[in-house]
Sequence to fold (101 residues):
Amino acid sequence: MARLPQRIVCLSTETVEVLYLLGEEARIAGISGFTTHPPRARKEKPKVSGFSSARIERILAVEPDLVLAFSDLQGDIARDLVKAGVAVTSSITAAWTASWR
Fold:
């Protein structure tokens, strides 16, 4: 059986909010500085990135085993993290967004 991620970095407020709603906030190792929901996340979790910019070393410092990206705008961040050996997944891509137009 595959091991579930234990140290997740969320690069958007949406992914933070979903994990809190699911009761999985203990797995969050770091958040975007733009996170607004839930408000307590800003007090409880280290801010390790912006939305479309990041210092990769700040993300790597919290030792994530998964990074949840949100947008193609975070492609450079995702590329650098994958090169560093971190699993990254994105919830919205340009192709998906274009399909709604």
Remarks:
- The first helix runs from residue 13 to 21.
- The chain has one domain: 8-96.
- Strands lie at 8-10, 28-32, 47-49, 66-69, 88-90.
